[in-house]
Amino acid sequence: MKKYLLILLALFPVFSQSQTKFNFLDKFAVVNYTNIDTANVETKEMVNVWTSYLKSRLYGWLKKNDTLGAGYWNNEERKLTTFPDQMCFLYPWLYYFPTTILNIEPCGDGFFRILNSNTEADSNGIVDTKAIYYVLIKKINNEYKLFNFFYHEKDQLNAFTMGMIRFYYPQSYHFSDLKARKLIRFQDSLSRLFDLPLHEKLDYVVDSDNASLIRHFGCIYLKTFYTNKSGQYWKENHTLLSSFDENDQHEMVHYFTSARFTDYIHFFDEGIATYLGGSLGHDLSWHIAKLNNYFNRAGADTANIMNHPRIGRETQPFYVTGGIIMKYAVDNYGFQKALKLLSYSEEHHTPEEVIEKELGIPKAELNAFFLKYITKHKLDKN
Amino acid sequence: MIKYCFILLLLFPLVVQCQTKSDGIGDLVRVNYTNIDTSDVEVNAVVKVWTSYLKSRIYGWILKNDTLGFNAWNNEERESYPRPDFVFSIFPALFFFHTAVLNIEPVDHNYYRILNCNSVADSTGNVQIKAIYYVLAGKTEGEYKLFNYFYHEKEKLKTTDVGKVQYYYPGYYPFSNEKARKFVEFQDSLSILFNQPVIHKLTYIFDTNTVSLMNRIGFIYQPMLPGAHDGRYITDDYLLLSASDENHRHELVHYFTSLENPDHILLFDEGLATCLGGNKGHDLKWHANNLYQYFIHEMHSDTSKIMGLDSMSKITDPLYVKGAIIMKYAIDKYGFQKALTLLSYPENKYTPEDVIAKELGIPRLQLNSFLLEYMKKYAGL
Predict the structure, then answer these.
(1) N or C: more exposed end of chain B, with fewer CB within 10 A?
(2) DSSP A332
(3) Residue B142 and residue B95 share a domain
């Protein structure tokens, strides 16, 4: 929420001006005319569709209209989800950094791929690249429409359905039926725990590392995918991405939290996923031991454990403390209490308020609670 | 040459600083530690070899040492190519723009793929991306060495030897032996014309469009070859890149002109290549007509601007056509030796206008009207 406010404040001068002068938004969609020949009518049309869409996303955000600009996308993908742009799922803030359209390249079957780079520069001229990625465009009924890179890419991947999950993986990947079966069993157990029958079929895209995984979605580079392995769940189109394996339990938990609740507190969501499904390849007890080693050492900064920066590449205190809260809630009050915590709206409540109200831990004592908990449970095994 | 001087001026404060503070050059190379885990010993070693190399390239340029840093490259490529870094050969000024090392990803055969983005930002925060490309690093004899992306990519390509040319092309492409033979015949005829034996084996990398071609070399994005079917000859490595076909004559002419004098004047070099080998699939007649029509319709017949015209369309480059007109005139009037004489003038000491006045007797003030007259003539108008 803080992030939203911060970006809103940063962009305020832009938007206040943009209401009277639409062209100001051109700053957010820059065309590289060296490589892109807009004297070509078709190229110009493609550029117009993509830049108009990018500007719509900014307007949509300002007007709190999450689907503004969806009309630029093809009907086939729009039928599957109200808002089909997968780059927005991978990196929701991406388009608020100026997009440079670097190239438009034909890629077969009437498709063109648009190469983009989103960057920002500081006052010293140092450029921070946020993402480099492709989006596809093709003429349908005399009108150019946008397509996700994955629309085409999935035809290059192996597909295999087990239970309610359709797995996609590259031919070079050694798919494990055993791991997939474990995920199905975990899914069944969560279905009972959350009291939610499985209605929706899940797409599960797996590859051996993050760089290869995001490439299936057209990304050459994505700053937010900074570890070698990670996962992501997209509630909008019931798609799970994982560079771990066929049994990414953490992301599977998000499927259930997002199916059961619409506006939940992020801290509790990541917490329940870490508690039930671990995080970045390790279970909660492993991460607790890591936190214990880090915070129970001389000179450690324990002022704000919950929001402490990442420790190493694997342990995110925000996730682990969330996991501790959810485990504590379940151990002391039962799973219904976890669901109760998840039922609070992020827009109206802070995690600290809810923890105090539901678990009786005052905000001022939260750090002490975490320290005591990690010390006591450092040797626990899940 | 003007470009180089411009870059030198831009870099002057940095260079001055570098002499007293070696880390100044480090500002041109940045590692994205968010995504690159340098606590991993192997990744850290890769980062070191690559960033040290990039700094060496910049130092090498300052010290006028063209080969400084090349010992960071693997022996196999160094033996085949005097300047083993293809990215540097294609875009020599690239490393003077900030290099951000964005990611290091393990790939097949225990190699790492290094993703780089070179960019520049102005004072208002507008960013210009200069290139996005991969380079490889692999361990040989216990230490990491750099490899061109093409080193591995070539294993995915088909290869055919015709005469002294080794072609690389994608498996789906129906290779034309006839076009390749025509190319070799053209090479033989140029060899006679220039009186230069073909002693080097030429590496000819081909793909059906420029984007795919440059992808083979490791580029995700580059502005140097913006057209759909461009080509480039890399002088020191005897490397010809083409997105045209197996018979890219224009670029082959550069092989011979660079043997004559590697420091030739660009107008004469591109002019002779266009005169003898055409450009972008069209011969001089076609381009002369194109330029003439542009002169009539877009420049309102203003002769004073012909020599200064530096851009026109994606297909016809005025510099190439003007150069070709001058070279054809020189050959027609004085014989091919005159073309070689024009090429013998070094770019860092002479302007084309000086040389034209001296060798062809066309005064600088009459050059525009001369170009217009022969543009019409060579266009067949």
Answers:
(1) C
(2) H
(3) yes
The DSSP code sequence of B339-353 is HHHHHHS-TTT--HH
Q: Say if B34 falls within a structural domain.
A: yes
Buried b (16+ CB within 10 A) or exposed e, B319-352: bbbbbbbbbbbbbeeeeeebbbbbbebebeeeeb
Nearest CB neighbour to B223, from listed A35, A129, A313: A35
pLDDT score for A23: 61
Kindly state whether residues B9 and B136 are assigned to the same domain. yes
Does any domain span residue B265?
no
**Does B267 map to a domain?**
no
Distances (CA, A) of A151 to A4, A145, A203, A302: 30, 13, 13, 46
Q: How confident is the model at residue B6 (pLDDT cuts 50, 70, 90)?
A: very low
* 3-class state of residue A303 by DSSP: coil
Residues B255 and B203 in one domain: yes
How much is the mean pLDDT over chain B? 89
Report the residue of chain A nearest B311, measured CA to CA: A34
Domain C-terminal end among B235, B259, B283: B259
Chain A nearest C-alpha distance from B32 (Å): 9
Out of A102, A223, A228, closest to residue B221 by CB: A102
Q: What SS3 class is residue A196?
A: coil
Tokens linked to A270: 């990541």
pLDDT tens-digit readout, A194-250: 999 988 899 999 999 999 999 999 999 999 887 778 899 999 899 999 999 999 999
Domain co-membership, B11 together with B139: yes
8-state DSSP, A325 = H
Cα-based angle A60, A61, A62 (whole degrees, multiple of 5) = 90
Q: CA angle, corner A82, sides to A77 and A83, nearest 5?
A: 75
Best probe of the A interface among B101, B124, B129, by most A CBs < 10 A, is: B129
Share of chain A above pLDDT 70, in %: 93
Q: In whole angstroms, what is the distance from residue B74 CA to residue B90 CA? A: 19
CATH fold of A157-257 reads Glutaredoxin (3.40.30)
Q: What is the number of other CB atoms lying within 10 angstroms of the CB of residue B142?
A: 5
Write out chain B residues lying below 8 Å of A37, CB-based: 314
- Report the number of distinct structural domains present in chain B: 3
My answer on whether B321 and B249 are in the same domain is no
How confident is the model at residue A15, as a pLDDT? Answer: 42
Residues in chain A with CB shorter than 8 Å from the CB of B37 are 228, 313
Q: Would you tell me how many other CB atoms lie within 10 Å of the CB of residue B4?
A: 14
Residue B226 with chain A: CB contacts under 8 Å: 34-35
Interface of B with A (CB under 8 A): 30, 32, 34-35, 37, 39, 98, 100, 102-103, 105-106, 115, 117, 119-123, 125-127, 129, 132, 209, 211, 220-221, 223, 226, 313-314
Q: Is residue B264 part of a domain?
A: no
Looking up residue B81, the CATH number of its domain turns out to be 3.10.450
Query: Which residues of chain A lie closer than 8 angstroms to B100, CB-CB?
Result: 127, 129
Answer yes or no: do B114 and B183 share one domain: no
CA distances from A54 to A35, A87, A322, B241, B347 (A): 20, 12, 35, 35, 46
Q: Residue A31 to residues A113, B185, B209, B302: CA-CA distances in angstroms?
A: 14, 43, 21, 31
Phi, psi of A314 (to 5 degrees): -110, -25
How many other CB atoms are found less than 10 A from the CB of residue B9?
9
Q: How far is B261 from chain A (nearest CA, A)?
A: 30
Residues B51 and B104 in one domain: yes
Same domain, B251 and B314: no
Ranges of each domain in chain A: 2-152, 157-257, 261-382
In which domain, by residue range, is B230 found? 157-259
Average pLDDT of the segment spanning A155-181: 96
Q: What span, in angstroms and rounded, lies between the C-alpha atoms of A356 and A342?
A: 14
